[in-house]
Structures are given as C-alpha cells and as structure tokens.
Amino acid sequence: MTASLKVIAPGLQTTVQDIGRIGHQRLGIPVSGALDTTALRAANIVAGNAPGMAGLEMAMSGPTLEVMADSVRVAVAGGTTELQIISDSGETRRVPPLHSARLVRGERIRIGGVAGSAVAYLAIEGGMDLPPFLGSLSTYVRGSFGGFEGRALREGDVLPLAAPGAVERSEVRLGGLELLPLARVRVVLGPQHDDFTAEALERLVTTDYTVTREADRMGLRLAGAKLDHVKGHNIVSDGIAPGAIQVPGNGLPIVLLADRQSTGGYPKIATVASADLPGLGRVSPGARIRFEAVPVAAAEAARRELEGLIAGLAARLEAVGGDEIDPEKLMSHNLISGVVDGGG
Amino acid sequence: MVRLIASGDTAMVVEFGETIDRTINARVMALADRIDETGLAGVVELVPTFRSLMVHYDPLVTSHATLAEQVRQLTDSLDVNHRHGRLWEIPVCYEGQHAPDLDDVARATKLSTRDVIATHTGEIYQVYCVGFLPGFPYMGDLPAVLELPRRTSPRLRLPQGSVCMAMRMTGIYPIESPGGWHLLGRTPVRLFDRRRADAVLMAPGDRVKFVPIPLAEFDRLDAAAAAGTLALAPREAA
Q1: Mean per-residue pLDDT for A251-262?
Q2: Is the pLDDT of residue A321 over 90?
Q3: Nearest partner of B196 among B114, B134, B115, B111, judged by Cα
Q4: Minimum CA–CA partner of B62 in chain A
Q5: Which of B19, B47, B76 is the last residue before a domain boundary?
Q6: Chain A 21-40, CB below 8 Å of chain B: which residues?
Q7: Which residue of B has its CA nearest to A293?
C-alpha cells in the first residue's frame, strides 16, 4: 500500500514549495519557492531531510491531514505555529514548532492557525512523491504547474509520500531559532534609483511603510509616503531580482517576492537584501516596516552570515521524547540527549 | 556605454541602453552567450531582456565586485555576431470571436481589417525577450502604422493563445491571463505546455512569422494541440 497523507481540511492556501525553480527565468518561468526559505529549511532539518526539500507552505490557517502510512515523521516551522496530533480516539497531543513528531496510521496532523508569521511550513521526513517540473516541486498557482497538480490543496486530495514509514529514531528539537517577521529591512538601492527624486530616495529609508491587504506570494503592496519618479513610470522591461521594490505610477512601492514575474516594466527603486527576504516573507497585512539602505557588499556579507547560521542548525538539534508529558519517555529523552551532547 | 548596476546582492543588471533596439538587443544576447561560454563562477542564471542582461548570482560563490570586473572584461571585448534564432511560423485565426479588437484596431489605425491582418502577417518579428508570463514572447518591431497605446481598460481574462499588440510590440499569451494589449487573433499553438519536454516553445532571439488560418483550421489544430499531438517544428533552425 502506498504511503500518503489525506487532506481532511486544506487550510486557506496550502501549497507544495521547495527553494524554487531555478534556471528558467529567461523563458519567463518564475522561481517561486518558499516565501520563508529559512523556516522551510529549518523544518526540513528537524524532520531529518535535506534542507531544500519540498514541504507544505501554509498561510493563515493550516491543513488537517490524516496519516495513510504505517508511520510518518513531521515538523512544523514558522512564527510560533505549532501542530496538533489527534489520535483515533480523539486525544490531542501538541507539538511545538521545530520539534519532530512521529505519527501512526489513522492519526491526524492538524495545524490550526499559522501564528506569529504569515507563513509556516510542514516538513515530512522523506518528502512527497510528486513529479518535479523543471527540476522543482514548487507550486506556481497562476501557471497551474508544479507541486500537487499545480494548485493549492483541496479537501479529499491524497498526497503521496516518498517513504513508506518514518525512520526509527528519537525525536529532536531545534532551539534558539526565531522565525518572526522583520520590522527593519535592509535594501540595496537600484537598479533604477536614478529614476526617482532625491526626496523619494530619502522617504524610502526614513518613513515607515505598512503592508496592505494586497499581499500574496507574488509581492507585498505597501502603503506610505509616495515615491515620485523623475521621468515617468514606464521603462522598457528588464529583469526582476528577488526582493526588487518596483514603483508603479501611483508612487507606492511593491516588494516582489517568490512568485514575481521574471521581467517587468516599472522602475525598481531598490532591492531587498537576500538575507532579509525570508523575514519579509513572514510579514502580514497591517505590519509596519522600515527600509535601511546598505551597500551591496554589506548585503552579501549578511547573506553569508545567514547561510552560516543555517549550516550550523543540524549540529544544534537536541533529542527529545516523543511525548513530553510521559515521565518514562522524558527519562529516555534525557539519556538520549546526553548521548547526543557527548557526541558533540 | 555599458552600465553595471546592482539589483540587490543576488543579481546584477548589465544595461546596454534604455530603448527597444535590435542592435542593443543583439549585444545583450551576445553577452549572454559569452558568459555561458566562459562559465563564470557563481552565475546562477541569465535573463536577457530588450536592453539589458540580468545576471543572477550566488553571493556565497562570487560577489558583485568580482562579477562586475569579469563582466566588464567581457563587454569590452564583445563580438556581436547577429546570430539568428529559430524561425517559427505561427498559424493565427483573425476571425470572429478570436479577434475581438480587430475592428477597433482597424478604426484607430484607419486601415481595413484586411490590411491590419496583411500588415501584422507581413513581418518577421524578433523575440526580444521572454517574460511577463511563462513563455510570453515580446516580439517586434510592429510596423509603425499599427502602433497604438495599450487599451485604456485591461481585460481580466485573455484566453491562452491570444495574439495581441500594443505600441511597437506583438505577443502571444501562453496561458490565460489579464492583459491590456489589443487582441488581433488567436493561435492554436501552445506556447507553454508542461506536457512537452520543452514546455516553453520560444526563446529570446527566435524569429516569428504569423500565417493567417480560417476558423475551421483553427478548430482542427486546436483539438490536436489540446490532445498534445500538434507537433510544431521551427521553419528554420538556429
């Protein structure tokens, strides 16, 4: 029998995402991928996967999934989002963020509200058995491709899993990693900063902007001080980098995120530092952000720092018991954690 | 004068000009080829557009400063051979429901609908850039007699295969999308079909000639395309 997860309730917008479909932008294929790649990678590390493996991205409210496999191991990451495990008999266990948990056939995973972030990720040990498109499992809903049938999950979907069951091992947790929205966002000015007035460049970094309701995987429309163009708001289309801040005719910036087009015809006043993109992916409508201009070399250094942090996550995993309120398992957890600590 | 501009810490814009111009576009393509041949460390992907090349890079492998130096050397010694991309012949039905803006375009350009079609099919267009949607080719140059601004009110849904025009550009919608260009006709050819090994049909640098077809022919080819059996080979290879 093939292992799978059955979608009992889909959540508001649950899609399969990995770290993106890289290498096809010249043909107009957006990169897509997780809005918060740090959370996805952390969830994967906790679940025992390679960091870039595809997981489920959840926005606002997460899904309820029934285990149709001998066993499955999962982990959730994103803000303070936790998951609940509901047994056959209706008992509920709560699993905090960045803790792995093993479930058996018939149990349900429920992620009620996505909390403390706009997005959270569910990683499944071994990943999902889905066909990659152009080398990626990321879902691009506008193009109806990637992920699970090119769309968000629906009730009744059966999500095939790659592994027949969870590997026998103790559960782990990852402490000390905050996955909260960023309030201060570093940007590198350009590529079309020359198309804006000096006042506009000043306002961009000295006033707060508020995330509007028009916020999705493609981008965040911001409200705040208008950014005036020097010479009109149409340019001959050029490439769009991740985090590019484009300013259409109304003077209000739009930060372009994972599902951005590969090219576009509005001037881009600045581009968010790649190290700050995961944190910007966590912001919700109503949040206030302040941009800070940094030189490109500083943005590159920030990115190296972030990657260093992520590379060190696996070594920070600590073993825990599967059920934290069971004293016997707590004891075994202490023993195991001692072993792990001893082994460095 | 070539400008190298940072777009954050993962992309660099190499800008050859600010206008739509085949000479500028040829330099963009030539630089993309040179970078591909040279295999610069840390380059993740190249996105040629009308007038600039976007070089996406991995800041863990290279840096803006290093890349700028390398790219500057390549642009200084750039040999622009006007290479020809593939030539595609694209069947288009310019009739009835498939051509909702044909009459408006004729009126605005003071041409007969027949002349609009003859003018649109009379050129070999250059694919300057593929973007906006998966596989959307920005093609030019549209003859000056057909030059019109975008529609004042964009349509919310243009069907896949819509052949459209605005300014000095013509394009084809690979998937259903909102859009503000004028709809001249519709092609049964799928510019994007994820069932194909090459999901995207056209690449930057390709050339395109439109060929008018009657409604019955459209229906026949459209059925084949829907079934995935419409094989379209380029009229000329690159």
Answers
A1: 96
A2: no
A3: B134
A4: A300
A5: B76
A6: 22-30
A7: B8
